Amino acid sequence: MASQISKRGFNNSGDPTMYEKYWKQMGERTTIVIPGWQSMSYFSDVKNLCWFLEPEFGKQVVRLHKVVGNAETDGRHIVVGTGSSQLYLAALFALSPANASQPMSVVSAAPYYSSYPSMTDCLKSGLYKWAGDARSFNQDSPYIELVTSPNNPDGFVRHSMVNKTGGTLIHDLAYYWPQYTPISSPADNDLTLFTVSKTTGHAGTRIGWALVKDPQVARKMTKFIELNTIGVSKDSQLRAAKVLKVVADSCEKTRTSSSSEYNESFFQFSYRVMDQRWQQLREVVNSSSVFSLPDFPPDFCHYHGQVLEPRPAFAWLKCERELQDCESFLRGHKLLTRGGRHFGVEPKHVRISMLDRDDNFRLFLKRLSMVQP
Amino acid sequence: MASQISKRGFNNSGDPTMYEKYWKQMGERTTIVIPGWQSMSYFSDVKNLCWFLEPEFGKQVVRLHKVVGNAETDGRHIVVGTGSSQLYLAALFALSPANASQPMSVVSAAPYYSSYPSMTDCLKSGLYKWAGDARSFNQDSPYIELVTSPNNPDGFVRHSMVNKTGGTLIHDLAYYWPQYTPISSPADNDLTLFTVSKTTGHAGTRIGWALVKDPQVARKMTKFIELNTIGVSKDSQLRAAKVLKVVADSCEKTRTSSSSEYNESFFQFSYRVMDQRWQQLREVVNSSSVFSLPDFPPDFCHYHGQVLEPRPAFAWLKCERELQDCESFLRGHKLLTRGGRHFGVEPKHVRISMLDRDDNFRLFLKRLSMVQP
Predict the structure, then answer these.
(1) Residues of B with CB below 8 A from A123's CB?
(2) Which of A106, A164, A291, B257 is the least buried, fewest Cβ under 10 Å from its Cβ?
(3) Domain Alliinase C-terminal, which positions (chains A, B) (predicted)?
(4) Mutate: best of A26, A37, A95, A129, partner B, most B CBs <10 A
(5) Angle A55-68/A234-256 helices, nearest 10 degrees?
(6) B6 with B41, same domain?
(7) Containing domain of residue A70, as a range?
(8) Which residues of chain A have pLDDT under 50?
């Protein structure tokens, strides 16, 4: 399996398999059992604007945001999606006027998530089109700006860059969780995207959610998902609900009880792993003259209750000296990474996944430590 | 719940809740159990062209088609989708050239599935556009023709209508199963769509599959689903695999053994229910002078081993006499149906779902029998 993944170049994808270890420790707590006759209907809750949202999933989303303190949920509609990818497309559909003469420009500050341009332009939509780096956007027409914070690939906290009139923001907060970055305050945006993949590691369930202020926007997003996939897997929503519930339980019980059934909360475990990995990576990078890593300012994390340094899900590694194409250079050393060009910048940077299984991450570090200039 | 559904007009949707009864009888046979640490990765089978296809789901698809005899699977690639809706969009993407000067025309003979036009034109794609009724298509440019057989809404067996050069066909065979129509021979098309919703009634799992001859087309469909939702729920694929397995088991064991653990196969059960419902509906319609129903020629079904009449999932009811808007007329009698306009024809017809729960279907018949001209 590992060698196959390497052959196909998949281990540069950010597959969050690191989390398997925690869920094995949790044993049967998150096992789901679904009898054959359950959840057969298309509909989950016909009274809800988002008629395919499983009520239990919606409930656990609200609860977890309250426990973690990373997003306001009051006065928001929850729209569930087949991962946050589908919700991103649903948001573009919802925020673009149906009868404009020109497609809406979609921008994000480089380096940006490598799939945004191809997802946006895949169908050559007349509603919206990718317009590149938000920093160089200088048109006076309406636009949609994607704000990914902490940012994929470089891990920095982000705010809107364009600040013109006629702009609408989509906040992609997939990584705004306590294992990756200090939680400074609850996000309070018009339209925010989250995904189970990066929260708990359950990428294969394909479940994301949007918190949406404007009911008309939430309704249009729901309509898009209806036309795209007639709703979202109920089985995966039920599984995601159970996983989020155990995460919230683990947070609450380690706070309130000294003799808890949980040794540490999910976020204590995952911050600890991320912290260790970043220290190991920095050691390797610092002992070489070939590479460098960004530095992140520490900040107070209201979840952990202390000042902490960010520990992003990706490391944005720079090849120093004359090396121009860092991805090719590293491939020559059997290190699969994703180069800067994919993210709208020069190829001196590559993105490294920090979320792989222990063995793969160790092998990665070993090979990286052997790279000579 | 029922009253809510009525308020929102959902029971005209074809929600296949009729099948809950069979799956309750099957008890624990189709229960799935998924531990928290399983199926976390994005990837299911990196050696497969469709890298997010769960191998067990692919295996059961092939097995069920062989047992039923309704589709050739040899020399086909299986692409799994979030319902067949997503596969329809993936097929449009795959069959439309990326650099054409004009969007590809997409046609289907009226009456056609009511969602095709809005699904096709939702994003105003530059790759393809809805061009209406296949019967009146008279352009000389390349086109995609959708062949839905048996047809939704009217239940008739369909073949391609356009027959010009430059045409590509998508066969939507969602209803080509032995409970709905005689299985005359295995379908042998270039690109065929199926869905678990209409096969077994598990609409909430959102799982469909495509059988695709050309590997380049299968690869492009896979790419679309990657950009749309980064794959398809593993949980639902595992559940669908188990359900298809029990269906195939029920077919094989009732054939080979007289003392089977199955009293009747899934298709024997579901044909029996459909047959009874159609007889009841015809009785009501025949005793009224207000309505009529189409007649279907009987044919030999290789699955059931006898000549049988089609028992479609929808009844295509016609209002006779001067009644022009059958949907409004019936709504006045608290009967929710979907009128002909949605399907590209005049409003003298309405579509009735034959797949509702027993109680709802009985109530529907009762109200229909009380309609006076």
Answers:
(1) 93, 123, 125-127
(2) B257
(3) 12-370
(4) A37
(5) 30
(6) no
(7) 39-250
(8) 1-10
